[in-house]
Amino acid sequence: MGGVIAWLIVVCAAGVGIGLYNQGWMNYAMFNRALTVLPFFMIGYSFKHYEPKLQDFSSRQCLSLIILLGLLYTGSILIGTKLYPGESIDVHMVKYFSIPLCAVQIILGVLFMFIVFSRIDNYPKWLLAVGKDSLVIYMWHPYIIAILLRLMAKTGISLHYMLTGLIVTVVGIFVCCLLTALIRKFAPFMIGNR
């Protein structure tokens, strides 16, 4: 019963977040956007309970699951590009071309990555550092993306929207990691460290 109530609260909070965004309220603090992503965090939290069961999967079962999720994710992307050409998901701007399809794409993509990474025994140190700072990187990311898009527009670089999104995301994450590493070294108090 408690789980149902928690889900109702999370879904209502996401609805409030979308409403706040549509009214242009609380954009600067991104409070509205934080509310809209709560269901995805809740799904991740719920899935966490099944993580130990993944260890019982054989390599073949796990590979089959990874292939299935990869195919479903690719299929959902192809459907999205066919039904909504030129549209993209932007969680920071609360932009979903189709909430059900976007939710499916996000959930499938996250589950795919979760299962792949759950099978890795020894993570590289840089990857663990990025994981520790993921919330800080998430905070930087929309601003860095906005700057990169403006730079591309000013320099006249014009690419297919999916390629632009991929480049901006990868470069944006790299820049965010670099900024976070510099803050961790020279001003750790800014990210809650001493």
Protein model, in words:
The protein contains 9 helices and no strands. With 194 residues, the chain is an all-alpha fold. Helix 5 packs antiparallel against helix 6 (99-118) and helix 8 (134-155) packs across helix 9 (161-186). The model has no long low-confidence stretch (mean pLDDT 81).
> How many beta-strand segments?
0
Task: Give the overall average pLDDT.
Answer: 81
Question: Level of helix content?
Answer: over 70%
Our Rg estimate from Cα atoms comes to 19 Å
What fraction of the residues are assigned to beta strands by DSSP?
A: under 5%
Give the end-to-end Cα distance, rounded to a whole number of Å. Answer: 41 Å
Q: Poorly predicted ranges (pLDDT <50, ≥5 residues)? A: none
Overall 3D shape: globular
Specify the number of helices.
9
Largest sheet: none
Order of helices and strands: HHHHHHHHH
Alpha-beta content class: mainly alpha
Q: In terms of topology, how is this protein built?
A:
Layout (H helix, E strand, L loop, with lengths): L1 H21 L8 H6 L1 H11 L2 H4 L4 H25 L15 H20 L6 H8 L1 H22 L5 H26 L8
Helix pairs in contact: 5-6, 8-9
Provide a compact summary of the structure.
The protein has helices spanning 2-22, 31-36, 38-48, 51-54, 59-83, 99-118, 125-132, 134-155, 161-186.
Features:
single chain; 194 residues; mainly alpha; 0% strand
